[in-house]
């Protein structure tokens, strides 16, 4: 192997990070107690982070900080304040989801390395190009990709100066990351805010296929796929588990470290993965990686599989044998725990003690002696000196109280001042105040690992530009040529939803747009491999004046071609600075504001100049979309695995009901990924009264997607009443509530 392969470990708390370091991780990723997508992890204080940085770097282990949530408008100032602090640490990178972060960091904190989170659902060539342009130094590829897709995108990333990162072990989401709203819809805890309540692990009424946990996947493990990952050129192997404890992290990282070292040294693999089964697991699968999406990926129990595996691997049948297997497992767990405890016992992340001594006599330079002690016998002594010499003065300014006050700021996240010593300083002397400022700056540089302290930057204020449209217009979405007659009953903009999968070289959709020039192409959020290539062909051959894209890869291509584009609702746009990123990096002409945020959170968003804002007031509520098949575990399917034709040909719908009695529509359209929708439609007539001064366009989704078994609405009548609503019709609200009998606008009330 000519290229360094990184082992990247999770760290939910200080003990887990220590465990990762001693187990041999090349890097750890961890979060502060704010702005990160694992709010259920213990997480770190800023003081903890500085201690972790010092400890990790001592062991040649890098540290990446997770700031991977979507941000609300009022949080931007707090994030900017945090970035001002992080820029003066030795942090090795930040992991981000919100598009605002690309704009802010690239412009104001260019020394911070940006890593694109898995929440950005990176799965096609265009997205790689976009992230490179936006300033990412590495990207975490979607967990659903297979080895061929990973190899292709990794080469492209490397060619564009970025590293690739792939999850190789730990829990698997059944949904595409960043495209799961189940927790947000069900209980108001958004996965895009680190508050996922794991609805995919919920128990449901027994399905026709006999399953109580039909959405529950086994854990991911590519332990025996290391040679293929190396061949694919992957730069970083990432272990999931920031809500797992130190014992789990140590065991998994240690196992992977030994596997990687063995392969690097000998070209062979270890064949023993037994330790991986001694910590929490749901059994293991590598099916996404292999592109073999079988029923075996599921397990009908979301709880720990360790005991069951121990019993099975020991062929235990009798009560005595089962108890012996359990006892052996517990002893092995305890042995690993003792091994870990011994290794981390003396690892310390406490603040370093800092003693500050001032020395100087007439005609000498003022010297500040900085003695650092990290709680060991080792001391580090640094000296900062003034450039000019001390002189006698009638009014000396070497006042002890004033000097102590000036240098008290070194009592900070990294250091705790143990004391000041002025005994070797003649206090009848003076030095120009400018010199005192300069020597303090030099001392700060020395204490900042030899890097000049970067002065704080003020958050740039945004101007709220006026609307593009005087009055909000109505727009609507269709996905079936049977709905083309709707063009004759309204002047609204009509978007036509493209599928997530295309027949190769099929001109069906190209012809639809060429024959119906009024239709505006609407591109979905997920377009992998040949489906992205076919979607790009639609752009190239139709050359539409305008599109809506929920995928930054297609958006990048539209930007290259000079096609006006609107950011769709599944790009999770929640703040003004994300709009700036879209406009400045991709010449975006407008954006849908996320339906996850509420009226108060929407009100303060400032539009860029000549930029449209759009909002959906009627649509099916998507909970999750998956590359796996929901029907294997629900109504059942005769096929053992998803085949190439499944995406294009399969068309099914059913419902699942959880043990609380709440039902959800399971929907698979021809050319679409399996998806789950809330039983209620999103209907928000209040937004028209509340936010007409903000939005240029209110949108309604008239596709039949996600309808489940619900009766199809009279679309002409719906359009008539929505148009009346926008025109101030008094009876429109009542008529819409009469037509849409099962609806909610809870997210508009609760927000994030």
Radius of gyration equals: 29 Å
Helical content class: 25-40%
CATH-scheme architecture of the largest domain: Alpha-Beta Barrel
Largest sheet: 8 strands, parallel, barrel
Total count of domains: 3
Per CATH, what is the topology of the largest domain? Answer: TIM Barrel
Q: How many beta-strand elements?
A: 28
Tally of contiguous helical segments: 24
Strand sequence of the main sheet, in spatial order?
Answer: 1-2-3-4-5-6-7-9
Q: What is the residue-mean pLDDT, rounded to a whole number?
A: 93
Content of β-strand: 15-25%
Q: Low-confidence spans: pLDDT under 50, at least 5 residues? A: none
- The level 1 CATH classification of the largest domain is Alpha Beta
Q: What's the short version?
A:
The protein has 752 residues and is α/β, with parallel strands linked by helices.
Write a structural description.
With 752 residues, the chain is α/β, with parallel strands linked by helices. It has 3 domains: 6-172 and 219-270, Aldolase class I (TIM Barrel), CATH 3.20.20.70; 352-447, no CATH class; 473-750, Alpha-Beta Barrel (TIM Barrel), CATH 3.20.20. The chain is built from 24 helices and 28 strands. The strands form 4 sheets. The chain has an 8-stranded parallel beta barrel with strand order 1-2-3-4-5-6-7-9, surrounded by 6 helices. An 8-stranded parallel barrel has the order 17-18-19-20-21-22-23-27. Helix 5 (125-134) packs across helix 17 and helix 9 packs across helix 12 (319-344).
């Amino acid at each position: 192997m000519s290229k360094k392969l990184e082992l990247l470990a999770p760290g939910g708390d200080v003990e887990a990070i220590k465990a990762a370091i001693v187990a041999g991780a090349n890097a750890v990723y961890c979060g502060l107690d704010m702005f990160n997508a694992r709010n259920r992890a213990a997480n770190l204080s800023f003081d903890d982070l500085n201690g972790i940085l010092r400890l990790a770097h001592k062991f040649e282990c890098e540290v990446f900080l997770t700031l991977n949530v979507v941000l609300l408008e009022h949080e931007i100032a707090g994030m900017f304040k945090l970035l001002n602090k992080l820029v003066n640490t030795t942090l090795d990178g930040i992991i981000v989801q919100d598009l605002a972060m690309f704009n802010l960091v690239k412009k104001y904190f260019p020394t911070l390395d940006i890593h694109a989170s898995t929440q950005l659902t990176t799965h096609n060539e265009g997205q790689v190009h976009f992230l490179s342009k936006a300033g990412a130094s590495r990207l975490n590829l979607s967990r659903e990709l297979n080895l061929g897709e990973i190899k292709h995108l990794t080469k492209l990333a490397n060619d564009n100066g970025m590293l690739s990162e792939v999850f190789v072990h730990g829990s698997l989401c059944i949904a595409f990351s960043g495209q799961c709203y189940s927790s947000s819809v069900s209980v108001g805890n958004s996965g895009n805010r680190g508050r996922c309540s794991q609805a995919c692990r919920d128990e449901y009424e027994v399905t026709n296929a006999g399953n109580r946990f039909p959405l529950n996947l086994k854990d991911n493990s590519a332990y025996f796929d290391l040679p293929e990952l190396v061949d694919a050129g992957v730069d970083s192997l990432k272990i999931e588990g920031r809500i797992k404890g130190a014992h789990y992290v140590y065991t998994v990282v240690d196992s992977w470290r030994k596997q990687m070292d063995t392969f690097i040294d000998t070209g062979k693999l270890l064949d023993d993965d037994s330790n991986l089964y001694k910590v929490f697991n749901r059994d293991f699968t590598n099916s996404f990686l292999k592109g073999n999406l079988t029923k075996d990926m599921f397990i009908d129990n979301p709880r720990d599989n360790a005991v069951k595996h121990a019993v099975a691997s020991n062929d235990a049948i009798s009560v005595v044998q089962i108890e012996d297997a359990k006892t052996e497992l517990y002893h092995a767990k305890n042995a690993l725990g003792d091994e870990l405890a011994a290794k981390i016992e003396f690892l310390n992340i406490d603040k370093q003690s800092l003693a500050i001594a001032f020395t100087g006599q007439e005609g000498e330079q003022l010297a500040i002696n900085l003695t650092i002690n990290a709680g060991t016998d080792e001391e580090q002594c640094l000296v900062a000196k003034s450039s000019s010499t001390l002189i006698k003065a009638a009014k000396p300014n070497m006042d002890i109280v004033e000097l102590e006050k000036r240098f008290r700021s070194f009592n900070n996240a990294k250091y705790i001042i143990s004391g000041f010593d002025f005994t070797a300083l003649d206090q009848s002397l003076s030095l120009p105040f400018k010199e005192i400022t300069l020597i303090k700056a030099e001392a700060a540089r020395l204490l900042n690992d030899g890097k000049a302290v970067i002065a704080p930057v003020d958050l740039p204020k945004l101007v709220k530009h006026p609307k593009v449209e005087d009055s909000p217009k109505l727009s609507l979405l269709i996905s079936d040529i049977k709905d083309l007659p709707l063009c004759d009953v309204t002047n609204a903009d009509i978007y036509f939803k493209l599928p997530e999968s295309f027949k190769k070289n099929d001109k069906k959709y190209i012809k639809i747009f060429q024959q119906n020039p009024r239709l505006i192409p609407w591109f979905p959020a997920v377009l992998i491999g040949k489906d992205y290539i076919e979607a790009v062909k639609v752009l190239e051959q139709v050359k539409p004046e305008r599109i809506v894209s929920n995928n930054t890869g297609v958006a990048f291509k539209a930007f290259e071609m000079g096609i006006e584009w609107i950011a769709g609702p599944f790009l999770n746009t929640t703040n003004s600075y994300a709009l700036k990123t879209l406009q400045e990096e991709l010449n975006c002409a407008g954006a849908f504001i996320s339906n996850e945020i509420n009226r108060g959170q929407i009100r303060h968003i400032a539009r860029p100049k000549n930029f449209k804002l759009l909002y959906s007031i009627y649509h099916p509520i998507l909970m999750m979309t998956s590359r796996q098949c929901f029907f294997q575990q629900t109504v059942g399917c005769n096929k053992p695995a998803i085949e190439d034709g499944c995406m294009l040909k399969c068309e099914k719908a059913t419902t699942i009901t959880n043990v609380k009695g709440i039902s959800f529509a399971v929907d698979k359209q021809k050319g679409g990924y399996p998806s789950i929708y809330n039983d209620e439609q999103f209907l928000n007539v209040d937004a028209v009264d509340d936010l007409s001064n903000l939005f240029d366009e209110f949108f309604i989704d008239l596709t039949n997607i996600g309808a489940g078994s619900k009766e199809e609405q009279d679309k002409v009548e719906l359009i008539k009443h929505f148009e009346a609503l926008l025109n101030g019709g008094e009876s429109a609200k009542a008529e819409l509530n009469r037509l849409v009998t099962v609806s909610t606008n809870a997210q508009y009330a609760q927000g994030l």
